[in-house]
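Quick question: who can interpret this fold?

. . .
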Amino acid sequence: MANVKYLAVICVLLAICTSGRAAEETEYSAVFMQGKKVGYAIHTRKVEGGKVTTSEEVSITISRVGVPVTVKMTETSIETTKGKPLGFESIQLLGFVTMKVTGTVNDSGTIEMTNSSLGSVQKSTMPWPEGALMAEGLRLLTLEKGLKAGVEYTVKVFNPGLGDALEASVLIGEKKDVDLLGRVVKLTEMTTTVAMPGTGSVATTSYVDDEMQTLKTTTAIAGMQVEIVECAKEFALGDNDVLELIGMMFVDSPTSLGNPRSASAITYWLAPKAGANFAVPTTDNQKAERLTDGKIKLVIRPVPAPSGATFPYQGTDPELREALKSTRFLQSDREDVVKLARQAVGNAKDAAEAVRRIEAFVADYIENKSLSVGYASAAEVLESRQGDCSEFAVLTAALCRAVGIPAQVVVGIAYVQDFAGHEGFGGHAWTQAYVGDKWVGLDAAFKSSGRGGHDAGHIALAVGNGEPGDFFNMASALGAFKIEKLEVE
């Protein structure tokens, strides 16, 4: 049920906020969550032949119902000594799945990018985001701006793993006494707020010395305190503590809902906590309204799939065309995915019937409902037949796209009456498919468990192509609000 994918987002944030350091040697740090050591970060920077190569490696291991899961990310940028981007590489280990992204930035400002995973290779091109910097460019900008208290500036930071630039605002604070694992040092406080369009923002506080070396960062995300502290190699790479994640990923329900499938609609009142900044989208299945007191009124009314619609989709709507494309997590053009999709759909001609068959097919197809999978693509799920809610979601979306039905992966929270002893709304992923003129919710994971599928107990926080970055809003929203009350129709 609960997702670990937002750990990849934490890795992204830590990689961004620890970049820009000057040392031409390897530096080690320990990563803490809720005060427990859960991993390490390694920073390297090398200058050779007029090029600067900077790498940030972050590894986090947590437990889900006693099952350990490791998320590891290594991001490397190659730039000129003046900070001009030349190329990059991102390697993500999500459970047993390894994904690699490499890119070259040519003189015309175009990125030639290659995504590879499980023998599948996808090539694409995209323009370099105007004004975006990588590690060396960010270091040079930091040197230029200095550490005078009150200095503020904004910057676009290109992240190889996301394949996009994140907007960041920086505020230089005062010098403070900072505890570095028992050693107190006076360091300058630097707050970096990273935002993604349409979601929320996450603020990370870094503490740097006079040589611009980042010695500690702290981030509040998903209701947890995450810290990264520079230390000896032996401690950084040493044994980790056991941090059980499940209980931290739940939002309490003000009342027991039983099985929300019996409700035609549920209205929720969400009360943000002090200083929280997150977004709740409006979709065909939910309407979000920001009230004058800052609270959010959210009406969830799942739409039924209209009958009589045909497929494949032949229209020209850009959003729907985008929701048909094959991506690195939704490899809908692979021969084996197309074959499985046709098997799932059978002789169905009606789009509503087709998506119902795909949902039921995926519910039965994934045999091992394993919490040990970090994050797998649709092609990997096809082969392994294992995973949790996000694996159900990506396979469902890919099969829909493979037969010409626009589909997206939805990330949010969903109500469960009992999951590992917890009741409430836990991190979850499902699918929505475009049928007729409506986005219809599909939840093969809940259907597999006997819950029945998508219902009014699902609160969407983001939709997309199943990329780890889509979990950004769930990561920023969890722990940032409480459900004050709800009404069931």
